[in-house]
Amino acid sequence: MSGVIWSKFFWQDWETDHAVRLSSFAAQGLWMRMLCIAAAHDPIGYVAVAGKGLDETGLALLTGRQESEISSLLGELERNGVFSRDRQGRIYSRRMIRDARKAATARNNGKKGGNPTLSNPSGNSASDKGWHMGEDKPHKPRAKSQSEKLGNFSSSAGAQKKSDIIELKEAFIDG
C-alpha cells in the first residue's frame, strides 16, 4: 500500500457530477469505496491492488458485500460513465489520474527549484537569459521623469504648485 496519504477531494465536483448523481445511492457508495482503493494503492487512480485490477470478486471481498450486488452496482456505474477502463480492463478514475500527473509534474519542477521553465523545453539555458540559477535576476530601477514625480497638473493652481516645487528644489540644490 504505497498510495497517497491524503489528497484533495473536490466536494462540488462530486455533487455536480451528473454521472454520479444519476447513479443510485448504493452505487455512489461503492464508487466512493473504489476511490479510496484507487488513492491507496499503486498505480494511483486505478482500482487495483499491487497493479492488478480488481474484479467483482475482489471488490466484494474488500467491501464485504455479495459479488452479485457488486456486479449490479458496477454495471450501473459503468452505464452512467462514472469511471473508465484501460486496455487491460482495469477501472480507473479519470480525475485521480489527471491529478496524479499534475502532482508528478509539480514534484519534478520542485526538484529543479519550482520553476517549470527551468526544465528548458525550448533548449535555452539560464545563461542565455542573462542570469544564472541561484542568482537573482538583475533589476534596473525605472527612473521617473519630473512630470511623473510631480503628477500631471492641468489647472493654473496646479501649474503654480509645480513651479513652487521646482523653485524649492533648485533652492536646495543651488543653495
Automatic annotation (TrEMBL):
Residues 116-127, 148-158 have a biased composition (Polar residues). Residues 129-138, 161-175 have a biased composition (Basic and acidic residues). Residues 100-175 are annotated as: Disordered. This is Uncharacterized protein.
